[in-house]
Amino acid sequence: GRKAEDGRIDWSQHAAPIHDLVRAVAPPYPGALTTVGGQPARILRTRVLDASAPARSPVLAVENGRRVAHCGGGGTLLVLELGVAAHSEKDLLAAILHEWPPTSRSSRAS
After folding, report:
1. Is pLDDT at 93 greater than 70 in this prediction?
2. What is the mean pLDDT of residues 74-79?
């Protein structure tokens, strides 16, 4: 069976395999796991927005009113559903806008 860690996002990858992971662990599974602003988060639905975007440091941003993830291996995702254990909408927005990329104890993003 699947374990929760099977759904952990490796943000150093290209957008396409990250999108495939999100689809594979979407509900009824728990979703793809990451952290946003130091808080556990689940990405439940994405769409590849730009497969040809160049590789760069992973960044989650709000652009034109949309949550967008620029992936470390290239490509950009539109994050359609995101679940963060935030106490309020203000906390969620602060997490998205100010504290990305996700942090981990290892050298790779979680």
Report:
1. no
2. 96
Q: What's the rounded Cα separation, in Å, for the pair 63 and 65? A: 5
Q: What phi, psi does 50 have (nearest 5°)?
A: -150, 100
Contact 68, 79 (CB under 8 A): yes
Cα(66)–Cα(11) distance, integer angstroms: 19
Q: Report the half-sphere exposure of 107 (CA within 13 A, side-chain side).
A: 0
Judged against a pLDDT cut of 70, whether residue 107 lies above it is answered with no
Q: How far is CA 1 from CA 23, 29, 74, 79, 86, in A?
A: 17, 11, 30, 27, 29
Q: Of 33, 66, 61, give the one whose Cα is nearest residue 47.
A: 66
- Residues 47 and 1: their CA atoms lie apart, in Å, by 26
